[in-house]
Amino acid sequence: MLAMLGNLLNPVTFSVMLGGCFAVATMQNGARGAGRAFRALSALWRADPDRDMLLARATMTKVDHLANLRGLSCTDRVKAANPFLALAVRKLADTENVDRFEMWAEQALADRTARHGQAHKFWNAVADAAPALGMAGTIIGLVGMFAGMDDAAKIGPSMALALLTTLYGVILANFVAAPIAARLTDLSERELMWQHELCRRMLVVARRETAPVRRASIREVA
């Protein structure tokens, strides 16, 4: 068993395959896209959109209550651990124009969607490139095998190269890159869902607090 596994492990061939896949994906998505794709790997383990959604809803309840009592300018007293949530609360506290806050929310969410998409595209590109590079290695191995038919000692290494590159291509595509892309896509969709919900609720609060009737009633109370 160990001997068989040893035959399947060829660090040089695997490194060439891996480097080739990353090079193709980088050419397709650019160095910035590659950087974002590797930085996004940390989200595979630490991201928890369901937890963030519950925290955002609880924070928004506090923001709504404080805005109703003291006005929008006081809502930045609510502390938020999530960076996007904290930024959205500050923007809401500073807003004097609902349309301006709405434009910020739309642009911020669009930018986040684009950044997430770059990471997904990179790993999907790796998944697409791996089988193609594996087939290229298979062809190279077969050419070497047929070219060395007169020497039996050359047939084995060439055949091994042909089969290992196909194997590595399948592994990289279906057991590494494609699962990473699918996981990141799922996390992104769930994260953006609660962020859209948060911005919609903030817009409701902002419209309520900046309405002429609301401002008039506040002045009367004062």
Automatic annotation (TrEMBL):
Chief location of this protein within or outside the cell: membrane
Transmembrane segments: 12-31, 122-147, 159-182
Keywords: Cell membrane, Flagellar rotation, Membrane, Transmembrane, Transmembrane helix, Transport
Lipid bilayer topology: Multi-pass membrane protein
Compartment(s) of residence: Cell membrane
One of the record's GO cellular component terms: plasma membrane
An annotated GO BP: bacterial-type flagellum-dependent swarming motility
Domain MotA/TolQ/ExbB proton channel: 81-192
Record InterPro entries: Flag_MotA_CS, MotA-like, MotA_ExbB_proton_chnl
Keyword Nucleotide-binding among UniProt keywords: no
Pfam family, one: MotA_ExbB
Family: Belongs to the MotA family.
UniProt-listed PANTHER family: CHEMOTAXIS PROTEIN MOTA (PTHR30433)
Protein name in UniProt: Chemotaxis protein MotA
Source species of the chain: Sphingobium subterraneum
